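Database export, one record per block. Field names are fixed; values are copied verbatim from the stored entry.
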Amino acid sequence: MNFVDLLVAPFYFLIFWLFAFIYKTNNKQDYLIQKYFISAYFLRIFGGIAFACVYFFYYGGGDTLNYHSDSMIISGALRHDPVNGIKLLFIKIDYANYDTYKYVSKMIFRDDRASQFVSGLAAIINIFTFDSFLSTTIFFSLIGFWGNWQLFKILCKLFPDLHPHLAIGCLYLPSILFWTSGLMKDTLCTAAICFLFKNIVDFFILNKRGLKTALIILITIWVLYILKIYILFCFIPTVAIYLFSNINNKIKNELLRKLIKPFFTILAIFISYRALDFISQDNKKYSLEAIEATAQITAKYIGAVSINTGGSFYSLGELDFSPSNIPGLLLQSFIVTFYRPFIWEVTSPLMIFSVMEACYFIYLSYLFFIFCLRKKKGQKIFTPFTTFCFTFAICFAFVVGVTSNNFGTLARYKSLMLPFFVCGIYATIKQKNHYPIASRPIPKTT
């Protein structure tokens, strides 16, 4: 950070404060905006500022600063050499082309397409922030916030009685406020998965089948494909089962509905398999045949880095993905993702927040367990939505739990999945109307 940050960041903070004030004033009849928008909005900005300060002053480096370093090279090219600057944004790097390579050779992530995407977006923002790291981080924090806000709003349409609980899951968890507010891939992935789910619900369940909705679905899938393809591996099968379950629930004849349900499940799995096989063709390390080896390599690499740098290391042991060992790995990964670190595993002040969050998840799990024991006749534990939430959470916890080997890395990776886990539990234990579309609205929503 430098003098530019001290000048530009307060200016943009004032601009964003003015925008929030105008947005709230213009939506006086919207209960959600009046009650939650301002607090969630500014907590997210403060989360971004905290993220930037922690990495700059506490860690003294990290991916976020490397992204910013690369972005300044691209934004500098955009200002002084626009033709080659645009090539850096949109054209695959040509190492034989001196005009672009003179910039590329200075970049840290020149061989990483996903990181180049992050730096390219940051470079565009840099044009308006004069390369201010803090200001660009604030922009990223608001990109992440807008995604979570859209998820919150669509869930409030499905479950209008639950908005206080949905707000916790979507807007106020510490992991969301901190880990999805920085100049990082995770911020963009969070925004993408939230927009993707929101528009899938609009398109397939609420029947809002406009061109805009379809385009957002395609764009967000493309963003996740570029940044972290394994998110799609967890999301596509679970959301497919969710959608086909909703179709099945619309069949009025109970006997026919029960008979055809297995067919819909098999169809969802088959379509998911074909979709995942197709999107992995361009990325061999995430092909369905090589994904096990990729997981093992990733786990060993992150673990080695964590040990060498004195990080908060953990291990689930030697990774064995044989069928007989999968249930044990699933259980271990679920525990480490949601219930650890334990208090005696804390090695830095930042981990205190992870411990507090883990205690909250233990409390939620206790409430879920009590509900299952005491549920009344006719009450459902699993609906299409809650089945989606729990299967997505379990799949995602398995992927990040077995590959992270570092509590800090795990906290960052799992943050985009937490809203679905928390909201799924509350939708189970609190919701009276289990049909996926609520029968009555909450006070007016946009």
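Remark 1: The chain has a mean pLDDT of 86.
Remark 2: The two ends are 39 Å apart (CA to CA).
End of record.
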